[in-house]
Design brief:
Pfam families: DUF6292. 46% of the residues lie in helices and 18% in strands. The termini are far apart. The radius of gyration is 19 Å and the shape is elongated. It is built from five helices and five strands.
Length: 182
Amino acid sequence: MSQFANSRARAQRERTDHRNRAIRTVAGQARDREEFIGLLAMLGLDDTDGGWSALSRSLADYVQQVAAAIGVPAHAVAYEVTDTATAYLGLAQRSPNHAGRDLMLVWDEQLGWYVAIETHPDETPLVLSYLRGDAVPPPAVVARFVAAVLDGVRIDRLHSVQPPLDRIAMARKMSDTRVTHQ
């Protein structure tokens, strides 16, 4: 009987793992909430993964808003939610103080937004400036920050922002940004 219970528990863990991976994949590919819900329904899945997919969806929408505010095309945008939620936007502009080097705008749930020089994998990242304050500022605030950095203004040095306590709260804040700052 014990062997049966162990096998059953292992099978349940594997099903849950497969389900969560499928939800994360769908969240990363869906363009909006309606498409996300539709894709989940087609797969026979629900959206109850402890905030992972909610954050992934909200982050995708939020990052697209920031990209639009800055003028970054969709092909230069990436994000992911793993043990840490992050986003990347490749900037077309170059740094006035680092001619010939591409710039990137990066978001991290612990550090917030920052502009850095694109580096090779074996190089230490060279951060030009951090945006102090809220982990999820309105897209217009991020756009002004990027413009200032491109004008050569150093906004701030390394610091941590005060993110919401959990991913569901962070996802809600990102969704609220869309409603209140369009």
